[in-house]
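Table 4 source record.
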Amino acid sequence: MRQASSSSALMEMLCSSENENEPALYKSAVVNYPYGTILNRNIRPIVTLVVLLLVSFLATFYTVAAYGVARRVYDLDGTLCWVDSGGGSFFPWPQGPDPGTGIFPVVIPMTNNVDIFIYVYLIKSWVLVAVTVLLWAGFTTYIFMLIRATFQASGKV
């Protein structure tokens, strides 16, 4: 392993690749500004990580809300119906029907084809939960890949 005597030599060691044809994951350039030296890194892995995190959280919140609203959907002789006054919706964000005020619940057939598709193919078949779990698995795998690549770039592995 090379000894680094200055910060530029250390940066060169951390950012260099063993194979000259293959760039390092974190290519960096040292830029001199009037107020000192600033490290300008490739931010694509960080942006990808943040996007994966946001999409995973959005899918999780949507899944929890959709399964909460799905409790008010009933299949009555092959017809999907909302139970309670007013109809609900699964798109764009799950909103349940308003709670009924009377003793007897009001049953309204589900007429929106998008809601029927989301309920039958995503909620009832548990595909929405599987997609959410796969997103979190992808996020976790990406974090481990970034950590491994960082250690490989620094030469500690």
